[in-house]
Amino acid sequence: MEIRPTTDKDLDVFVDTVHAAFGRFPETPIEGGGLWWSALEMDRCMLALTADGRPVGTAGTHSFELTLPGETLVPAAGVTAVGVLPSHRRQGVLSAMMRHQLTELRARGEFLSVLLASEAPIYGRFGYGPATYTARLTVPRHKAALAVPRARGVAQAPSTGSDNGSVEVLRRAECGEILEEVYDRYRRAQPGALSRPHRWWALRAGQPPISPAPRYVAVHRDADGVPDGYASYSIESGTLTVDETIATDDAVFTALARFVFGHDLVSQVVFQHVPSDHPLRWQFADFRAGEVSGDMDWLWVRLLDVPRALTARGWFMDGELVLDIDDPFLGEHDRYLLTIRDSKADCVPTDRKPDLSLDISDLGSIYLGGTAPSTLVRAGHIRAHRPGAATLADALFRAERSPHCLHWF
After folding, report:
1. Does residue 116 belong to any structural domain of this protein?
2. What percent of the residues of the chain are helix, what percent strand, and what percent coil, each to the nearest 5?
3. Which of 137, 197, 248, 379 is most deeply buried (CB count within 10 A of its CB)?
4. Angle, alpha carbons 391-393-397 (nearest 5°)
């Protein structure tokens, strides 16, 4: 078997192969773009070929920025289009491609890779761990009344905005630049969020609201008329489904929620991709108004260079831990002293006794602050070697807010 990099000339073969791997057929091109593979970077993709040159596997990466705790932006390789033809599965093709890909990413100087897992059991083998989570919130409209805030000094938002803001309904085709600008402001402050390069918006490659699928967009503007949030939605059979809600603060999200709850001829509202700890559920007059479902993992994280990754993110308290890290897929085992002072980390090899022993996939899960180390200790994945080690790790690895990722790739 040969694994080789692709060029633009390989696009059709690559697309046909990955579709065959999933038993699907490529979509018919849509006027104005919209095909997800149009955003592929062919110089970051690869094909696995048999000895006689037949393509049997694909894998690629996108060039993204990932927002870390502390609002630090770092490059991250977004692994995508991974597939092996059914006739060649369980023959080592996938493992060979993943090993080749990780080696290539390291050679490029990259220290983080991320992905969305089609099947959860697959990618833990290659050192990826689930790091952000998402859920669906379904709200019957007759139960959607929001309570008056109880905190002193918090004013109740009017029905169409927050403070002196306003909401305007536009068609998706009318507000592409607004969506791109608002999303970019949002993702820079949200741990776990990925960038959406301009070419994605220009090519309309992805899922709504990036794609050309017909959608209405509720755009929120602040008192000065500057867009600071949006909700992309469609209505079918009395259900208003919000594909994506982007808000630069909680008051804007509340204003957009009030807007969709007030839509006529709607029996229920469904919010896709809501963090499990989002405050909206607490804002209902009836706490049981919102039904949470589809709670699942979203962004998976893999560290390629532990010291660089740990020193890149922000930290919110001082302390130190000795981490004993096993990376069985790459055949590596290292021990590091993580020291945090004044929000900055130093991470160096050490021979001190470990505080925690963990797999590289476990480190990926706790890296963004969305999974508590103590949870993985209780699950039997991380070993704490002394009392208090897990509690200290929880405090050190926490983020300023829960990490969340909305971008599909």
Report:
1. no
2. 30, 35, 40
3. 137
4. 125
322 known ligand binder: no
| Same domain as 38, residue 185 | no
Structure tokens at 101: 């890909």
Kindly report, residue by residue over 291-348, the tens digit of the pLDDT.
Answer: 999 999 999 999 999 999 999 999 999 999 999 999 999 999 999 999 999 999 999 9
Q: Which domain holds residue 366?
A: 306-397
Mean pLDDT of the chain: 95
**CA 181 to the chain's CA centroid:** 19
Q: Is the peptide bond before 5 cis (omega within 30 degrees of 0)?
A: no
Q: Is 260 annotated as a binding residue?
A: no
pLDDT surpassing 50 at residue 45? yes
The answer to whether 132 touches 116, Cβ cutoff 8 Å, is no
- Check: pTM over 0.85? Answer yes or no: yes
What are the residue numbers of the active site? 123, 409
Q: What are the pLDDT digits (tens) for 234-261?
A: 999 999 999 999 999 999 999 999 999 9
Residue 407, in any domain of the structure:
no
124 is in an annotated binding site: no
Count of helix runs (H) and strand runs (E) in the chain: 11, 19
Number of domains in the chain: 3
**Considering all CA atoms of the chain, what is the largest pairwise distance in Å, rounded to the nearest integer?**
73
Closest Cα partner for 383 from 401, 348, 350, 358? Answer: 358
Q: Which of 157-161, 326-330, 379-383 has the lowest mean pLDDT?
A: 157-161
Partnered with residue 337 across adjacent β-strands are 322, 348
How many whole angstroms separate alpha carbon 343 and alpha carbon 315? Answer: 5
Q: Is residue 120 part of a domain?
A: no
328 with 379, same domain: the answer is: yes
What is the C-alpha separation between 318 and 342, in angstroms, rounded?
A: 7
Cα 101 to Cα 5, 95, 304, 309: the distances in Å are 10, 10, 11, 18
In 143-279, which ranges are continuous DSSP H helix? 176-189, 198-203, 250-261
- Work out the number of other CB atoms within 10 angstroms of the CB of residue 234: 15
Binding site annotation covers 206? no
151 and 268 both lie in a single domain:
yes
pLDDT tens-digit profile of 167-209? 999 999 999 999 999 999 999 999 999 999 999 999 999 999 9
323 three-state secondary structure? strand
Asked whether 198 and 204 are in contact (CB, 8 A), the reply is: no
Q: How far apart are CA 259 and CA 167, in angstroms?
A: 8
